[in-house]
């Protein structure tokens, strides 16, 4: 029997989908991702030999400190406002990735150079890995046209390339890999025919994703919503799957918590990092699922099952809040009020979709432009006979898309995940359109690829002009050169007071200490720097600096810094930018540039 005889009159069958065709779309997508991510990085600092983001330097500093101290359970950055240091909310998996690359290249070029080079290429590697994992997970529901669309939609999304740009080593890229891998496994593990070991695997992957970053909690919420819908539709089997999944997540999260923090991890209660709260949350969902399973036989209608679901999960949530009332404060927990109002509020990635600071052309098309294709693919697929469709993977992805779309409206950073989960349903929509236009004409498929490739020549280059680059800032290469000149500043380490955004790069590229780095947790050094720079009483500022034992002041005349500290007359920052420093400060030469740094030594 030929494959063509399996096609029903009402629509194409699953058997139409080629199962062993060469992955040419993904080979093309791989090349485009590498080129696009490299171009993004080059336009965001890499061309000057610098990382594309301050967080990349923070991660590099963490990996370097782990290499130096070997202190796994203590990830405090000791060089931030010493001797106090700063305990971030990040976790060890991404540290390990960076450390492995640095150690592998150390015999050839030294650890620091190897770490820098590895941190440049690692995001691209993770981007390509994400693409291939997504292909492995969902390509079986796409035909030739859909697979070509899949590859191009994945490789030409600016927000995806932004997340994987060269030189932006951040755990968000690893969260992307964990997200698509977990969803790919979930579509199989949550099927009625799946074995218990598959659900255990899903639970372990979910716990690992949660360990990588708290952003992954959204993926776990998506899986629970999928299970909730499944419970309402099918009853007891779905409750059994939910119970197995929940208990596995709880156990695996406990293991990860102990691996991250040792025994003291059992007393961690934060929401912005792995803690006992997430163990308790998963366990409570497992108990709730067990309760539903017990009463499943008495709940014969969908309305009864829905009511029981609301009651049981509401009870579990109430108990969790009674145990950990601080979870009502939100996922970030305690945010430094000054940092929240002065820096968090100004981060473009954290702005809402409408009314934010990011250019609309680089933000609106990626996720939202895929929605019509996704909706069309779903509607057409729903009209096919049940035997010719598999709605489970699509339902899982669209639940995820709904989550991320709501989040993306309020905060742009979630569009990265939205694009990833919309690629498959959007490609399915293109697939259906191609079948309607020309069911058998392979030339149309080639034409679609050609048109998309030509569009890429127009689409991708303008993105770099409207990407996430910040306004022109001071050249850190000049500042680092001055700070590393022992004849100028003396032998390190010195305590350097500078804008928090410059702190991570100073940590990574010099031997000096800094007062603060970008982080939402309360930082005494951030407040101290702000108070000194804003002070109009220079004598009072001097007293503060002496109490803080500061050695150097580094100021920048760029727009960001002036917006933070104010450009009005009277403040110490304004005086330093203008070169009108008080007598107890001596200006040290930094190579010229516009805007420029000014470096001052505090005389005692």
Question: Which CATH first-tier class of the domain at 476-602 would you pick?
Answer: Alpha Beta
Calculate the mean pLDDT score and round it: 82
- The helix/strand class is mainly alpha
Q: Could you estimate the helical fraction of the residues in percent?
A: 55-70%
Shape: globular
- Quote the distance from N terminus to C terminus: 92 Å
> In CATH terms, what is the fold-level topology of the domain at 476-602?
Rossmann fold
Name of the CATH architecture of the domain at 476-602:
3-Layer(aba) Sandwich
Low-confidence stretches: 1-19, 385-389, 464-469
Q: Helix tally?
A: 25
Could you give the order of strands across the largest sheet?
2-1-3-5-4
Indicate the proportion of strand residues. under 5%
Number of strands: 5
The main pleated sheet reads as: 5 strands, mixed
Sketch the topology as an H/E string, one letter per element: HHHHHHHHHHHHHHHHHHHHEHEHHEHHEE
**Rg:** 27 Å
